[in-house]
C-alpha cells in the first residue's frame, strides 16, 4: 500500500486485554499449586499466537503447549525461548525438526520413540520427552495397561530422556465420577512406574481439572480456556477476567416498515416499524451463522440489542429501536464482558473453544495492556 493514502479503521476487531490474561494466569497458578504449561495452540485460542507468547514469556512458565511444529516454529521465530511441548503424537516427517530444535515431544508409541532415538543419536543429542498415557481420552498415548511392560524398552533408548508423564481429561467439565476414576488410574500407573520421583514432570489437569479437582502427585498443569477468560465449569466463572472483546461498528441505520423481511430467506419479518442497524461483521469473520434466529444479542450504548434474521457472511442486522440516539459508526460489542463467549457458544449450539478459534484472520487483533 502507498502510505500517501488514508488508512481506514477496521470494520471488525478483537481487543485483547493482556492484563486480564495475566490475572487469569495467576488464578490458574493458585488453583493448581503447580508449575504451568500454558496452552497456546490454535493461535492461542484465536487471540494471536506470537503476541500471547510474548506477553506470557516473562511470567515464569514451564512450557508453552502447542499442537504442531508450525506453531512451535512461530513461537521461536517471534524470539520467545520458553520451552515448547508438542501436545499430541507426531508423524515421521516432523521429528527431525523437533530433534534439531530440541522441542519436547510426547511419546504415544514404541515406534515413535525408537524413531526419535535414532534421529537424536544421528544429531548427537539427547531429546527430552514425556510419556503420553491414554487413561480414557482415546486420542493418543500408550494404552494404560501396556505402559509398565514397555518401560524396559523405552528406558533402553539412550538418546531419549523421559522426563515426564501425562494424560488428558476428556470429561472433567461433564462427568466428575469418570474424571475422578481417571485421575485415580493415572496415579496408579505413576506408582507402578516408581512413583512421583521417577518423573520430573507429571501432568494431567486441564482448565476444568485445575478448577474442580485435586492435583494429587501432579506438579505441572495445562490451563487453556480459563486463561482466555472462560471457565469450563460455570461455578468458577466469577474468578476469571474477560480477555477478548470482539467489536464491530454500525455501518447503516434505517427504519423498516411493518411486514419488511430482514436478511436471507425472510426468516424474520418486522411486525411494526423497526429501527434496524446494519453491523459490519458476519460469519466470514467468525460470528457463527448458527446464531441465526437463536435470540442472540449484541451490546450497543450500554444495552442489549437483538440480532434480526440470518447472519450473513459480512454483516448482521440488529434492532436498535430502543436506542433513539444510535448512530452510524457506533461501536458494537459482539462478544465480551457484556455478551460472554459462553453465551454466544450456547446459542450457537457449540462450545467457547470453537467460538474463539473460529474468529478469522480478517478480524484485526489489538493487544492492549
Amount of beta strand: 15-25%
| Number of strand elements | 19
Structural class: alpha/beta
Q: What Rg, in angstroms, do the CA atoms define? A: 24 Å
List the domain count as a whole number.
2
- Structure annotation, total helices: 11
CATH superfamily of the largest domain: Alanine racemase
Estimate the mean pLDDT confidence.
Answer: 96
CATH second-level architecture of the largest domain:
Alpha-Beta Barrel
Give the % helix.
25-40%
Largest sheet descriptor: 9 strands, parallel
Order of helices and strands: EHEHHEHEHEHEEHEHEHEEEEEEEEEHHE
- Residue stretches low in confidence (pLDDT < 50, at least 5 long) are none
Distance between the termini: 29 Å
- What is the fold named in CATH at topology level of the largest domain? TIM Barrel
Per the principal axes of the C-alpha atoms, what is the gross shape? elongated
Just give the CATH class of the largest domain. Answer: Alpha Beta
